[in-house]
Design brief:
208 residues; alpha+beta; Pnp Oxidase, Chain A; 2 domains; 7 helices; disordered C terminus; binds flavin mononucleotide
Protein backbone atom coordinates (compact mmCIF):
# COMPACT_ATOMS: atom_id res chain seq x y z
CA UNK A 1 0.00 0.00 0.00
CA UNK A 2 1.49 3.34 -1.02
CA UNK A 3 -0.30 5.80 1.20
CA UNK A 4 2.44 8.36 0.69
CA UNK A 5 1.40 8.63 -2.96
CA UNK A 6 -2.28 9.16 -2.35
CA UNK A 7 -2.90 12.76 -3.27
CA UNK A 8 -5.84 14.85 -4.38
CA UNK A 9 -5.74 18.18 -6.10
CA UNK A 10 -8.38 20.50 -4.65
CA UNK A 11 -9.74 22.97 -7.17
CA UNK A 12 -12.61 24.78 -5.54
CA UNK A 13 -13.50 28.31 -4.74
CA UNK A 14 -11.29 29.58 -1.96
CA UNK A 15 -13.00 31.32 0.93
CA UNK A 16 -11.74 34.85 0.93
CA UNK A 17 -11.46 36.74 4.19
CA UNK A 18 -13.29 39.74 2.71
CA UNK A 19 -16.26 37.52 1.78
CA UNK A 20 -16.43 35.80 5.17
CA UNK A 21 -19.12 37.06 7.56
CA UNK A 22 -17.89 39.07 10.53
CA UNK A 23 -18.83 36.23 12.88
CA UNK A 24 -18.04 32.63 12.07
CA UNK A 25 -21.39 31.30 13.31
CA UNK A 26 -23.46 32.35 10.26
CA UNK A 27 -20.77 30.87 8.06
CA UNK A 28 -20.83 27.59 9.96
CA UNK A 29 -24.63 27.56 9.76
CA UNK A 30 -24.49 28.21 6.01
CA UNK A 31 -21.97 25.44 5.51
CA UNK A 32 -24.14 23.07 7.55
CA UNK A 33 -27.14 23.95 5.38
CA UNK A 34 -25.03 23.34 2.25
CA UNK A 35 -23.99 19.93 3.59
CA UNK A 36 -27.55 19.01 4.67
CA UNK A 37 -28.91 19.82 1.20
CA UNK A 38 -26.56 17.28 -0.36
CA UNK A 39 -26.83 13.54 -0.08
CA UNK A 40 -23.87 13.18 2.27
CA UNK A 41 -23.48 10.36 4.76
CA UNK A 42 -23.81 11.92 8.24
CA UNK A 43 -23.37 15.58 7.22
CA UNK A 44 -23.45 16.56 10.91
CA UNK A 45 -20.77 14.10 12.05
CA UNK A 46 -17.79 15.66 13.78
CA UNK A 47 -14.68 14.54 15.60
CA UNK A 48 -14.69 15.39 19.29
CA UNK A 49 -11.35 15.43 21.10
CA UNK A 50 -11.09 15.49 24.88
CA UNK A 51 -8.18 14.99 27.25
CA UNK A 52 -7.90 12.77 30.29
CA UNK A 53 -6.63 13.85 33.70
CA UNK A 54 -3.02 13.38 32.54
CA UNK A 55 -3.57 15.50 29.44
CA UNK A 56 -3.62 12.58 27.03
CA UNK A 57 -5.96 13.28 24.11
CA UNK A 58 -8.68 10.96 22.87
CA UNK A 59 -10.95 11.52 19.88
CA UNK A 60 -14.14 9.98 18.53
CA UNK A 61 -17.04 10.85 16.25
CA UNK A 62 -20.27 12.40 17.54
CA UNK A 63 -23.22 14.04 15.83
CA UNK A 64 -23.79 17.79 15.96
CA UNK A 65 -27.39 18.38 16.99
CA UNK A 66 -27.56 22.16 17.25
CA UNK A 67 -25.38 25.09 16.28
CA UNK A 68 -26.38 28.53 17.52
CA UNK A 69 -25.09 31.44 19.60
CA UNK A 70 -24.99 29.22 22.68
CA UNK A 71 -22.55 26.86 21.07
CA UNK A 72 -22.46 23.49 19.39
CA UNK A 73 -24.51 20.73 20.99
CA UNK A 74 -23.92 17.03 20.91
CA UNK A 75 -25.44 14.25 22.97
CA UNK A 76 -23.75 11.44 24.77
CA UNK A 77 -23.74 9.27 27.83
CA UNK A 78 -22.42 10.60 31.11
CA UNK A 79 -20.81 7.28 31.94
CA UNK A 80 -18.85 7.32 28.69
CA UNK A 81 -15.13 7.99 28.64
CA UNK A 82 -15.68 11.33 26.90
CA UNK A 83 -18.19 12.49 29.51
CA UNK A 84 -15.95 11.46 32.36
CA UNK A 85 -13.01 13.25 30.79
CA UNK A 86 -15.08 16.38 30.22
CA UNK A 87 -16.23 16.32 33.82
CA UNK A 88 -12.59 16.64 34.91
CA UNK A 89 -11.35 18.83 32.04
CA UNK A 90 -14.26 20.65 30.44
CA UNK A 91 -12.44 21.66 27.27
CA UNK A 92 -12.82 20.06 23.88
CA UNK A 93 -11.87 20.41 20.25
CA UNK A 94 -14.22 19.63 17.37
CA UNK A 95 -13.63 19.14 13.68
CA UNK A 96 -16.33 18.99 11.03
CA UNK A 97 -15.29 18.00 7.52
CA UNK A 98 -17.24 17.89 4.28
CA UNK A 99 -14.78 16.39 1.79
CA UNK A 100 -17.09 16.89 -1.20
CA UNK A 101 -17.29 20.60 -0.44
CA UNK A 102 -13.59 20.90 0.41
CA UNK A 103 -14.53 22.46 3.71
CA UNK A 104 -13.49 21.87 7.29
CA UNK A 105 -14.38 23.72 10.48
CA UNK A 106 -12.41 23.59 13.70
CA UNK A 107 -13.84 24.70 17.02
CA UNK A 108 -12.25 24.71 20.44
CA UNK A 109 -13.73 25.76 23.73
CA UNK A 110 -15.25 25.08 27.09
CA UNK A 111 -17.91 22.44 27.40
CA UNK A 112 -20.89 22.55 29.71
CA UNK A 113 -24.03 20.53 30.25
CA UNK A 114 -27.33 21.54 28.76
CA UNK A 115 -30.38 21.53 31.03
CA UNK A 116 -32.21 18.34 31.93
CA UNK A 117 -35.34 19.73 30.26
CA UNK A 118 -33.46 20.20 27.01
CA UNK A 119 -32.03 16.71 27.24
CA UNK A 120 -35.53 15.34 27.82
CA UNK A 121 -36.87 17.22 24.83
CA UNK A 122 -34.11 15.88 22.60
CA UNK A 123 -34.46 12.32 23.89
CA UNK A 124 -38.18 12.41 23.13
CA UNK A 125 -37.42 13.12 19.45
CA UNK A 126 -35.30 9.98 19.05
CA UNK A 127 -36.74 6.86 17.40
CA UNK A 128 -38.05 4.33 19.91
CA UNK A 129 -35.34 1.83 18.94
CA UNK A 130 -32.63 4.34 19.79
CA UNK A 131 -34.36 5.22 23.06
CA UNK A 132 -34.47 1.59 24.09
CA UNK A 133 -30.85 1.18 22.96
CA UNK A 134 -29.85 3.97 25.32
CA UNK A 135 -31.20 1.89 28.21
CA UNK A 136 -29.60 -1.30 26.95
CA UNK A 137 -26.09 -0.27 25.99
CA UNK A 138 -23.46 0.97 28.45
CA UNK A 139 -21.37 3.34 26.35
CA UNK A 140 -17.55 2.99 26.53
CA UNK A 141 -17.80 -0.22 28.56
CA UNK A 142 -16.97 -3.64 27.23
CA UNK A 143 -20.11 -5.73 26.86
CA UNK A 144 -19.33 -9.42 27.46
CA UNK A 145 -21.33 -10.59 24.45
CA UNK A 146 -23.98 -9.61 21.94
CA UNK A 147 -26.35 -11.88 23.87
CA UNK A 148 -26.00 -9.61 26.91
CA UNK A 149 -26.92 -6.59 24.80
CA UNK A 150 -29.92 -8.44 23.35
CA UNK A 151 -31.02 -9.38 26.87
CA UNK A 152 -30.69 -5.76 28.03
CA UNK A 153 -32.73 -4.66 25.03
CA UNK A 154 -35.49 -7.20 25.68
CA UNK A 155 -35.61 -6.09 29.31
CA UNK A 156 -35.94 -2.44 28.24
CA UNK A 157 -38.66 -3.35 25.72
CA UNK A 158 -40.63 -5.23 28.38
CA UNK A 159 -40.15 -2.47 30.94
CA UNK A 160 -41.52 0.30 28.75
CA UNK A 161 -44.07 -1.68 26.75
CA UNK A 162 -47.16 0.35 25.93
CA UNK A 163 -45.71 3.64 27.17
CA UNK A 164 -43.15 6.31 26.40
CA UNK A 165 -39.47 5.55 26.94
CA UNK A 166 -38.09 8.12 29.39
CA UNK A 167 -34.54 9.41 29.21
CA UNK A 168 -32.23 7.13 31.21
CA UNK A 169 -30.80 8.97 34.23
CA UNK A 170 -27.29 8.39 32.91
CA UNK A 171 -28.22 10.09 29.67
CA UNK A 172 -29.77 13.01 31.41
CA UNK A 173 -26.68 14.93 32.22
CA UNK A 174 -24.70 13.66 29.31
CA UNK A 175 -25.72 16.25 26.86
CA UNK A 176 -23.23 18.98 26.41
CA UNK A 177 -22.79 22.28 24.73
CA UNK A 178 -19.63 23.77 23.48
CA UNK A 179 -20.36 27.13 25.02
CA UNK A 180 -19.07 30.62 24.66
CA UNK A 181 -18.69 33.17 27.43
CA UNK A 182 -21.82 33.68 29.50
CA UNK A 183 -22.16 37.35 28.47
CA UNK A 184 -25.19 37.43 26.19
CA UNK A 185 -23.82 40.16 23.94
CA UNK A 186 -20.58 38.34 23.28
CA UNK A 187 -20.02 36.12 20.32
CA UNK A 188 -19.17 32.56 21.28
CA UNK A 189 -15.50 32.60 22.13
CA UNK A 190 -14.58 29.32 20.46
CA UNK A 191 -16.08 30.41 17.19
CA UNK A 192 -14.60 33.86 17.38
CA UNK A 193 -11.20 32.39 18.05
CA UNK A 194 -11.65 30.22 15.00
CA UNK A 195 -12.62 32.95 12.61
CA UNK A 196 -9.15 33.47 11.29
CA UNK A 197 -8.63 29.81 10.61
CA UNK A 198 -12.15 29.35 9.33
CA UNK A 199 -11.54 32.05 6.78
CA UNK A 200 -8.39 30.42 5.57
CA UNK A 201 -9.18 26.76 5.59
CA UNK A 202 -11.52 26.22 2.67
CA UNK A 203 -9.42 25.16 -0.30
CA UNK A 204 -7.29 28.23 0.15
CA UNK A 205 -3.55 28.46 0.28
CA UNK A 206 -3.32 28.27 4.03
CA UNK A 207 -3.21 24.73 5.35
CA UNK A 208 -5.09 24.52 8.63
C1 LIG B 1 -20.74 8.74 12.62
C2 LIG B 1 -20.76 8.48 14.11
C3 LIG B 1 -21.55 9.28 14.92
C4 LIG B 1 -21.58 9.09 16.31
N1 LIG B 1 -22.35 9.91 17.08
C5 LIG B 1 -22.31 9.78 18.43
C6 LIG B 1 -23.02 10.72 19.25
O1 LIG B 1 -23.68 11.66 18.78
N2 LIG B 1 -22.93 10.57 20.59
C7 LIG B 1 -22.20 9.55 21.16
O2 LIG B 1 -22.17 9.47 22.38
N3 LIG B 1 -21.51 8.67 20.42
C8 LIG B 1 -21.55 8.75 19.06
N4 LIG B 1 -20.84 7.87 18.27
C9 LIG B 1 -20.05 6.81 18.94
C10 LIG B 1 -18.72 7.43 19.41
O3 LIG B 1 -17.86 7.66 18.30
C11 LIG B 1 -17.98 6.56 20.44
O4 LIG B 1 -17.68 5.30 19.91
C12 LIG B 1 -18.78 6.38 21.72
O5 LIG B 1 -19.50 7.55 22.07
C13 LIG B 1 -17.84 6.04 22.90
O6 LIG B 1 -16.85 7.03 22.98
P1 LIG B 1 -15.94 7.28 24.30
O7 LIG B 1 -15.65 5.90 24.86
O8 LIG B 1 -14.70 7.95 23.82
O9 LIG B 1 -16.75 8.10 25.25
C14 LIG B 1 -20.80 8.04 16.89
C15 LIG B 1 -20.00 7.24 16.06
C16 LIG B 1 -19.99 7.45 14.70
C17 LIG B 1 -19.10 6.57 13.82
Amino acid sequence: MTLARVRREYRGQALLERRAPSSPLPLLQRWLRDALRRDFVEPNAMTLATVDALGRPRARMVLLKRADERGLTFYSNLRSAKARELAVRPHAALVLWWPELHRQVRVEGRVSLVSAAESDAYFATRPRGAQLGAWASPQSHVVPSRAVLERNLSAARARFEGGDVPRPPARAAHDRVLAGPPRPHARPAPLRAERQRLAACSTGAVRP
